[in-house]
Amino acid sequence: MLASLDSNNYPHKVGLGEREARIACKLVARRHYNFGHGIGRSGDLLEAQPKAAGSTLLARLTNALILDLIRGIGLPSCAGCFLVPMCTGMTLTLCLQSLRKRRPGARYVLWSRIDQKSCFKAITATGLVPVVIPCLIKGESLNTNVDLFREKIKSLGVDSILCLYTTTSCFAPRNSDDIAEVSKLSKQWQIPHLVNNAYGLQAKEIVNQLECANRVGRIDYFVQSSDKNLLVPVGSAIVASFNESVLHDVASTYAGRASGSQSLDVLMTLLSLGRNGFRLLFDQRGENFNYLRENLRKFAEPRGEIVIDSRFNSISLAITLATLAGDQMKSITKLGSMLHMRGVSGARVIVPGQNKTIDGHEFLDFGSHRSNLQVPYLTVAAGIGITREEIDKFFDIFNKCWNQIFQTKNEKIMSLLETTIK
């Protein structure tokens, strides 16, 4: 019905423009329900498209339902949001570009370090200068260095800083940034605050942090991935704000018309699951996170390992690999490939000495969110949709891989001893 409102599907159409949504392949037309015009107009994602009343209605309905979901899961203060048909990293770039229009003289972005390439490249892609704020190390967990944020604001000057840039959802043992305290700095100094909330909508703790941060301070935009939170294919992100007036700045920064297929995916999924369906999935995810953490602790204790205490990370967990690695630090990386070959995806093995340079900026011990990693570890996460059956199967595979590596390690030691004796 919506597609029939687009001009390319009119029975009496006479198309004389350069873009008439003609689709050559029937399979492609069926895949997109004969939508072909996309959404928005050149240079504005939220503007109505005269040739495509149906696509425009679809996009606006999708945005309205996303906002209803966001408010319904614990963010009643959220004033507005819209879907951007680009990945999270590029959407963060779009937000930074819009902030740049508001603060043309500013060039620095104060960024709390998280070892994930796309959120850092979002800064460099705009030609801005990243100022990396290292995390505070408490035990083996990592926390936001709020005092260093404050020092950098004073030393660089308010007018030269484009925004404060924080992250909620991340790989353990890094905790969610203390966005409430950073938002206070943002409000105090009147500096914009951008939050990378990649997969944070599915975690009640993070949702509560966002609502609290808005109450005590300032957040201009918080950006989340649609695939990680809404269970749709990769390709779009959601820009949300507690101030509706600033959202149009981002929408009008987009260059060109946009794809409408991502809105279609999200709309169909929202209608399929409904608010109650998503709430149930979010609740189950939280329960399965606790189940994963408890079983990871049971796995770690008899093997002389620990689950790192990152209590402000409610999605990801990290288990040390010290006894397994021993003095063969580099060889432990094969654990990741062993797990992958047996069907386990998403688990990451982090070892000291893995340095990486991104757009001219060097990160020591990349992957660990710090520059002095001593103990290797494995991270796993309980994302939306995970089941207890998957968790149980993971531990079965993990145990077999662990025993295999340990056996190989002991055989090498015995062989070395025999050679020495001879």
From TrEMBL:
Keywords: Cytoplasm, Protein biosynthesis, Pyridoxal phosphate, RNA-binding, Selenium, Transferase, tRNA-binding. Its EC number is 2.9.1.2. Pathway: Aminoacyl-tRNA biosynthesis; selenocysteinyl-tRNA(Sec) biosynthesis; selenocysteinyl-tRNA(Sec) from L-seryl-tRNA(Sec) (archaeal/eukaryal route): step 2/2. This is O-phosphoseryl-tRNA(Sec) selenium transferase. The keyword Cytoplasm applies. Substrate binds at R41, S42, Q49, R257. Pyridoxal 5'-phosphate binds at R19.
